Amino acid sequence: MLRIPIVQRSAAPAPRTARTQPPPRDRPRHDPSGHQSSSVENPSVQPTDPRHRQVRSFVLREGRLTPGQERAFAELWPRFGVDWQAPAPLDLGALFGNDQPVTLEIGFGNGESLARMAADDPGRNWLGVEVHRPGVGHLLLEIERLGIDNLRVMRQDAVELLTHGIAPGALDRVQLFFPDPWPKKRHHKRRILNPGMIALLERAIRPGGHFHAATDWEPYAEQMLETLEAATGFANTAGAGHYTPRPESRPLTKFEQRGERLGHVVHDLVFRRC
Ligand SMILES: C[S@@+](CC[C@H](N)C(=O)[O-])C[C@H]1O[C@@H](n2cnc3c(N)ncnc32)[C@H](O)[C@@H]1O
To answer: Fewer CB within 10 Å, N- or C-terminus of the chain?
Structure first.
């Protein structure tokens, strides 16, 4: 009898690299921010098993690095980048080499406004967390250009970082500027500022510390105001129902400029942790 050999296919998938296209289900259908975030080596921002997928505030996208950004990852990441794996909490004092108060910026984009703030306020430590790889590379180059040493950079999902990596009360301030608005109703669940995030912020920010958000998307601003005012751990520094005038200390961000070109009104919200 003729026997036909059965050829076994290897079960091991090809390793994912920075330049591998994500499978179709991970490709964004619509990104209202116009932002190209990327899929990378960092396991904490890799797509997870679809059976256990959580709703994320970002969609992983390919992002090409410029030669300058490639160099930044090779030369500057070892000094200013933070390699972190959940669930170990960060030792912020050791990270900065001092006990200055720490401001965390979530989703810094290209990082130019964050680097400016860090340069303007050296008496404070600054930690930026972003998932978009070219943005991280851009910020590393800004740190080099400005010659500052009070800023560290993380390539991470901020939700994961706040859930596992930040000890209770370890932060003096958290800032969230122009988060993706996810304007379609079916995408509202992707908005990063929701009651779950507010609970994480209440845990991470010390009593007397502050949370500062800004957005140019009116319905999101209204949702932020309502959700933050409903949280018992925060008090609106502008008084109930009010937005805060734009603080001088906040430089214009890239997405803010884009919003202004589109005629959007910008709202700032500053809440004190009580
Ligand atoms: C609309 S952009 C705003 C960027 C910047 N703040 C600005 O104003 O120019 C929102 C940014 O948040 C980042 N982002 C979204 N969800 C995030 C998350 N869970 N952790 C870290 N970064 C996130 C995106 O990659 C994107 O760069």
So the answer is: N
